[in-house]
Design brief:
five-stranded mixed sheet; 5 strands; plastid; Ribosomal_cS23-like; 2 helices; alpha+beta
């Protein structure tokens, strides 16, 4: 099982949602949560805990990747300098505003 992290990006605001990928099928796993307007990490954690088919290992992976994305945004808020695609192939920038 794999996951895709979808980002909607605006200067100083990041929307993040996670999809679960089964072969060619993509299933939305979480809603979009907008950081720093809300505590996106905690909201994603709560949503994952409600999905009993997601293992603790997978939840940990998702939350660690979410932390990595949020930390990159905090360290460098310029959109073009954070994600080069080569290191985060499971991250898809859906829109920049």
């Amino acid at each position: 099982m794999s996951f895709r992290f979808k980002l909607v990006w605006r200067e100083n605001l990041l929307g993040i949602a996670i999809d679960q990928i089964y072969g060619e099928h993509v299933v939305p796993l979480t809603n979009y949560y907008y950081w720093p307007r809300s505590d996106a990490w905690s909201q994603i954690r709560l949503e994952l805990k409600a999905k009993n088919w997601i293992s603790v290992t997978e939840q940990t992976f998702i939350l660690n990747k979410t932390t990595e994305i949020l930390n990159k945004l905090q360290a460098s808020p310029k959109q073009n300098s954070i994600f080069d695609g080569s290191k985060m192939s499971d991250v898809e920038i859906i829109a920049t505003l």
